[in-house]
Design goal:
There is one protein chain. Helices cover about 75% and strands about 0% of the residues. It is mostly helical and about 100 residues long. It has one domain. Helix 1 packs antiparallel against helix 2 and helix 2 packs across helix 3. It is rod-shaped, with a radius of gyration of 21 Å. The two termini are about 25 Å apart. The model has no long low-confidence stretch (mean pLDDT about 80).
Length: about 100
């Protein structure tokens, strides 16, 4: 869920998990409660990981869209048969199509 446009949903949820996990850890440290140390720590850790993945997903989508929008054309010369160039062409074509759908 943290890749692509799913990051729009997972980013706020991850931030909330991070905030509430930290809040739970503080409550335990202050002696307000003696229960929930494991879930609080898990919420904080998973919130951090989810936030990082969501940000990476958003950055990836933005980069792919920009590559597609600013690519010179959608047709390419087929004079190279290296898989590396085919992958770049595919990523550019997908990003271009996504950019046209969004924009």
């Amino acid at each position: 869920m943290s890749c692509g446009f799913g990051a729009i949903i997972s980013l706020p949820c991850s931030i909330l998990g991070w905030v509430f996990g930290r809040k739970g850890e503080r409550a335990i440290a202050n002696g307000e409660t003696t229960q929930g140390e494991g879930p609080a720590k898990a919420g904080k850790i998973l919130g951090i990981v989810g936030t990082i993945l969501a940000v990476l997903g958003i950055v990836t989508v933005v980069v792919l869209i920009l590559v597609g929008v600013f690519s010179e054309s959608s047709t390419y010369d087929n004079d190279t048969s290296e898989p590396y160039f085919d992958t770049i062409r595919l990523a550019g074509a997908l990003a271009g199509a996504l950019g046209r759908l969004v924009g």
